[in-house]
Design goal:
With 146 residues, the chain is of the alpha+beta class. It contains three helices and six strands; from the N terminus they run H-H-E-E-H-E-E-E-E.
Length: 146
């Protein structure tokens, strides 16, 4: 019995010691750098020849190319890329949605991805962005009836 307690205590110490802590609170220390930062982009996929019907007046920033799309129940999902970096893509989508009369219900940007949630004109949805290489961000747009 005593051996088991010693063994359990040793396991507990090892487990908590492995977690460790750092007194460095700098953003660089707490934010991992995605592997794609700085990578050169390869040739992008071509634009889709046919996409699901979008709501009238739904914005499409100039730098966006849709490569595919589908219906999932009542939702429309579009996939593509934005020919700019993540920050420019995030700002571009937020501005385009606002300019088309949509309300931004939530938005955030992390080092490797960003989201812009929106509502208006009897729909809700999300634009999800992910940096794929230097100067290009993957785009997933989900549009749902409200």
């Amino acid at each position: 019995m005593k051996r088991r307690l010693v063994f359990l205590a040793a396991c507990l110490l090892l487990a908590t010691g492995a977690c460790g802590s750092s007194n460095d609170k700098s953003p660089a220390a707490s934010t991992p750098t995605p592997a794609v930062f700085g990578q050169t982009c390869t040739a992008p996929k071509p634009a889709a020849k046919k996409l699901p019907k979008l709501p009238s007046g739904f914005p499409k920033p100039d730098a966006v190319t849709y490569t595919s799309g589908s219906k999932a129940g009542p939702s429309t999902i579009l996939y593509g890329y934005y020919a700019l970096d993540l920050t420019e893509a995030h700002t571009g989508w937020a501005d385009a949605l606002k300019g088309a009369g949509y309300t931004i219900t939530h938005e955030e940007q992390d080092p490797a991805d960003a989201e812009v949630n929106f509502s208006g004109d009897q729909i809700t949805g999300q634009v999800r962005l992910q940096e794929s290489c230097k100067g290009r961000s993957l785009v997933t747009v989900t549009i749902r009836p409200d």
